[in-house]
């Protein structure tokens, strides 16, 4: 049983515990002396670690994804906790409980599975319902889908992250459909639940979170489309166009070519999926970044390289007094002023004369970007 967790480490602690090596880099100091920089982890979090002495010799004793028993001194550097290792020893895998070293979702996985089943049951399109049952009714696939992480480092990087993220995106699209007339709710739900399905084969999550060979060579988007086609082929009479629309959602859900999408979104449903997938990913990524710095006293996080900015910590707002308009009638009156009277309309003849003048002006000047593109043959596909 693991005794010392990353989350329990405090500034100036003497740490004696077992951790998983997530990253290992041999670097060179300015004075030319080599040193080791490590990322150690357990299910409660990650912590940076340094080995300053005998780095070459010490580094030869272990590899990435090994378990190490370490003795170290903890200190906060630039707002982040780090360990200075004085001793370390390789620990055989049979002497540890793997469940102690991989982070997992805060949500109850069985509850989330129940919510997923509820969404599938709510579909009115019999073909899409039949397709989703073919996916999530497969015990082997579901065993992977319920525990896989959603990514290696960007968002939902924990066991159960893929299920949590897919379910969150499905809930977002479900909440949006009443706001816009004509949206295909069932197609949106199906696309949301399946958009990252290829990650069950893209991601490796036995010791640490990494990519499989298939994930590195092919990627989850292509894998997902292949899996989708396999399931569709097993369902006689599945509508060809419906399958094509769903494949397009998977192919385009990253939005841009430079973000890995083979196609850009070209349907309303695909566009919605792209933005809501990105929204949920970013919210989770930002919150994770904030939570990683409990020892940073600043009201701002450290610099986030991916998002190219610092973030104001939301927990700094807790406990501060907030204004409630109902407690301040004069403020409510200021925020909700009396309606402004509607101006009297000008006579019809004057309106017609003004319209003729504006038409003449438009003939001599156009600020429309489409005017410059007139007669151009644009290939937007």
Description of the structure:
The chain folds into two domains: 6-100, Nucleic acid-binding proteins (OB fold (Dihydrolipoamide Acetyltransferase, E2P), Beta Barrel); 109-291, Hypothetical protein af1432 (Orthogonal Bundle). Strand 6 and strand 7 (210-211) form a beta hairpin. Mean pLDDT is 85; it is low at 319-323, 361-374 and 376-381. It is built from 13 helices and seven strands. With 381 residues, it is of the alpha+beta class. The radius of gyration is 28 Å and the shape is elongated. The protein has a five-stranded mixed barrel with strand order 1-2-3-5-4.
Features:
alpha+beta, OB fold (Dihydrolipoamide Acetyltransferase, E2P), 2 domains, 5-stranded mixed barrel, two-stranded antiparallel sheet
Topology:
Elements: E1 14-28, E2 34-42, E3 45-51, H1 55-59, E4 67-77, E5 80-91, H2 109-122, H3 126-136, H4 139-145, H5 161-176, H6 185-194, H7 199-202, E6 203-204, E7 210-211, H8 213-217, H9 220-233, H10 240-252, H11 268-291, H12 329-335, H13 348-364
Parallel strand pairs: 3-5
Antiparallel strand pairs: 1-2, 1-4, 2-3, 4-5, 6-7
